[in-house]
């Protein structure tokens, strides 16, 4: 039965893939389906990519919620795109080495069910993901147990009771909560519980705090950040209730993690009815673990160490899992030990040369004080005697189980044999649960890296790339992060960005790191410890090189607080992220460098500045088309030729962008050089025409208005102009009359032999000469164009204005003529002879 639906459409653009992923993620998390979000996001990413990139059509995504799962449909509008069963070369259609078909392979691998459906106008690819079964809690009474076997607790047992309202904010906080966590009630009430909870941040595993608060009942371990900043491990029981008004809230009971027996739901033993013939044989695994067994790895491991501790009447127990290469063991569960401090710590499999120093064989140590370092995990814990046994599956070491006591000589080979039997019963279940966790982590990591790659590829700004790198690692992978950059091989690492999950600690962390020598750049990939920072900051710190194009361009430093350790899987994920981030950071660097070079070269093509011409007002406005361009195909120049004579030019090279800008540089420099040689206007343009034609295939035709300006002693100005294929200059009289000030002649860069002539005009006080490029007159809005008539109409309204005001009014008219940004370069050059009284 469909209980909810959500739909969205996405245009055929690359960024739609990320938008579709976000839509599916938000929808499923809103429905409380966190367990299947990562698989749904990965499948949606592939199928929407097929629609918007390969099919090139709009993609429609529909999410349908049912009580036991979700169905997601992705449709495109390319129904004639067939789905062949075999490729023409007889290879399967879905081949991992081919770009096409991978989405269907993922559906087959991840989805509970999937299929392809066709209609007259659409093609639907759908998949269904079922929710994993959650064990239903049971209630039972424990057996009578001798006093010495009862769980330990403080003399004054404290149970923190807090209530969380519908907005997930704390609404009640009892006296025991004040004592355990150090916060007074008035400091906590009203704050979201998520601000206090240190929830496990491993991608793809576990349930988030928000999801846990939505469940009707939840029980498990997490941490609460105390008033002193330390994380206090707790065991919690949540119950969702309604008040007298029907408003939902959550009652939370919390105790110290080592007192979990106070709240942990007891396991119900298999019921018997006295008829042995009907009873099924006892499962050795269930005999040791109890039934029902936890369905998650952490719960199974924690149950195991507690059963092992109780079985041998120990003070502590621990379980470690082996790495894939069987060289190290990783602490995954403890009881009676500082579990938060030891979790995910690494110890070697072979700690010594004797059989007692190897985790591959059972070992009994009567007194650890006589053999320091024999069991590294127990150093400085007060434990004296210990027995350890290996967990093996098909002869391969998968872990180690141990129990310890504070008194020496507590254990013998008989206890080792009992513990080995228990380890043999649970080894296969532990390995199966570990592989399941790795698979969930792999899927979560894949989703994390897909979204991280999209974010990093979406910017070429160096500072934004640094911020994204840090924000993607904190708090998902680490508690804090620092990014060092290296400008060149001869430069020292520079602390470029620092981020901490607690914003109030960022400045302090940055100050600490600035006083520590930066890590040494190393080309070897992978994470390595950084003891110098660990000593200054505290906790575990690792450094990953940022390698791009065979060069170390920086380091990514990740840190955990004291008592926490990095998991191997998290470091591998961080290594993958660092490679992607390094390439994005280097791309941003290259883009910034090339942009700076481009701008420097473009600025060299612009005139250094307009000279002050006595008795004249001169104003220039220049706009180059295209993002990041400062110079295009249009150009201008005003320059002194000799005393009392000034040259000016405004031109338009065919095209826009760098190719056109190269010709503008040639034209501007040639005009200055030829004019200062004493050549007249026609001779200057004829030689420029020859220079353009000499460029061969790189030559471009050019329209150019060139002239000489001679200010007159009586206050007017004499101008000699040549208009080679350029829009005619317009003359504005003080009475508002507008007339062309020159005649059209052939443009440059087309013919070898040009016959150009020079025209002379006089500007009187109050006259304006307006020169523009065709980016002004050819400004379009649909089929409408500003044109010569439109420019003339604008100019008639400019009587009495200064040259600057005339140029500004023309620019404003051009911009208002159309809503879209201009697609062509544009230059405006205005001259005006002021009245003598204006200078007083």
UniProtKB/TrEMBL annotation:
<dbReference type="Pfam" id="PF00989">
    <property type="entry name" value="PAS"/>
</dbReference>
<dbReference type="Pfam" id="PF07228">
    <property type="entry name" value="SpoIIE"/>
</dbReference>
<dbReference type="Pfam" id="PF13581">
    <property type="entry name" value="HATPase_c_2"/>
</dbReference>
<dbReference type="Pfam" id="PF13492">
    <property type="entry name" value="GAF_3"/>
</dbReference>
<protein>
    <submittedName>
        <fullName>SpoIIE family protein phosphatase</fullName>
    </submittedName>
</protein>
<dbReference type="InterPro" id="IPR052016">
    <property type="entry name" value="Bact_Sigma-Reg"/>
</dbReference>
<dbReference type="InterPro" id="IPR003594">
    <property type="entry name" value="HATPase_dom"/>
</dbReference>
<feature type="domain" description="PAS">
    <location>
        <begin position="161"/>
        <end position="191"/>
    </location>
</feature>
<dbReference type="InterPro" id="IPR013767">
    <property type="entry name" value="PAS_fold"/>
</dbReference>
<dbReference type="InterPro" id="IPR001932">
    <property type="entry name" value="PPM-type_phosphatase-like_dom"/>
</dbReference>
<dbReference type="InterPro" id="IPR036890">
    <property type="entry name" value="HATPase_C_sf"/>
</dbReference>
<keyword id="KW-0378">Hydrolase</keyword>
<dbReference type="InterPro" id="IPR029016">
    <property type="entry name" value="GAF-like_dom_sf"/>
</dbReference>
<dbReference type="InterPro" id="IPR036457">
    <property type="entry name" value="PPM-type-like_dom_sf"/>
</dbReference>
<dbReference type="Pfam" id="PF13185">
    <property type="entry name" value="GAF_2"/>
</dbReference>
<dbReference type="InterPro" id="IPR003018">
    <property type="entry name" value="GAF"/>
</dbReference>
<dbReference type="InterPro" id="IPR000014">
    <property type="entry name" value="PAS"/>
</dbReference>
<dbReference type="InterPro" id="IPR035965">
    <property type="entry name" value="PAS-like_dom_sf"/>
</dbReference>
